[in-house]
Design goal:
Layout: H1 2-27, H2 46-49, H3 57-102, H4 109-147, H5 164-172, H6 178-182, H7 186-195, H8 201-204, H9 207-218
Helix pairs in contact: 1-3, 3-4, 4-7
Length: 219
């Protein structure tokens, strides 16, 4: 009994430490990813706009590199938070199992079950958030790698829902052709919607379908 009491006190101390760490992480402000608007350029004719001039790599690459760095830092914070929340959930699972072994009417079982439910929900939300960040990193990295070998640039404003500022943001993130958007998977659509801070815009305006049609016309 004494050993059991000591073990329980140690578990409670560990839980208090985990709760303090979680609270500290929650109080940290969420990173706000901002992309500075590009410097306005003189209006050009449709012919000039569709020229195959490659966007300046220096600015675009710098913007994308900064974004990747921010995402990777945010991912590390999410991984630490998830690890803490997972430990908290596992603790409450052990506590619930122990109380159930003592009987259905064990004091504290109801409260421990509520704590287990809450901690499980928090861990699940943290996992979903981490997954979204991982998808953004993957999509952006792949786009930049592919854009490095591109020799052409399409006027993405021909896609409904993409204006000049949004087009320049896509260029900066390595999306420069209709083909790239036409080949987006559902995860890519979600990732770039998050990256561009335009929730559901790409899906609502059917960018992938529009890009496929424009690609066929171009061919």
């Amino acid at each position: 009994r004494v050993a059991h009491q000591i073990e329980k006190e140690q578990a409670e101390q560990e839980l208090n430490r985990l709760r303090l760490e979680v609270e500290q992480l929650r109080q940290q402000p969420e990173p706000v990813f901002k992309l500075e608007a590009p410097t306005p350029k003189p209006k050009r004719s449709r012919t000039a706009a569709t020229a195959t001039k490659t966007p300046a790599k220096s600015k675009g690459t710098a913007d994308a590199t900064t974004k990747l760095s921010e995402l990777e830092n945010h991912l590390q914070e999410q991984q630490r938070l998830l690890a803490t929340l997972t430990s908290e959930r596992d603790h409450w699972q052990r506590e619930v199992n122990e109380l159930r072994d003592q009987g259905a009417d064990s004091p504290g079982l109801a409260q421990a079950s509520k704590s287990l439910t809450r901690s499980s929900e928090n861990a699940e939300k943290a996992q979903l958030s981490l997954t979204r960040t991982q998808r953004q990193i993957t999509a952006l990295t792949q786009a930049l790698e592919k854009s490095a070998s591109l020799s052409e640039v399409d006027d993405l404003t021909q896609i409904k829902g993409i204006k000049t500022v949004l087009r320049d943001q896509l260029y900066a993130y390595g999306i420069r052709t209709f083909r790239q958007i036409a080949e987006w998977s559902a995860e890519d659509v979600e990732a770039f919607s998050d990256l561009l801070a335009f929730k559901n815009r790409a899906q609502r305006d059917a960018w992938v379908q529009q890009a496929s049609e424009l690609l066929q016309k171009k061919a």
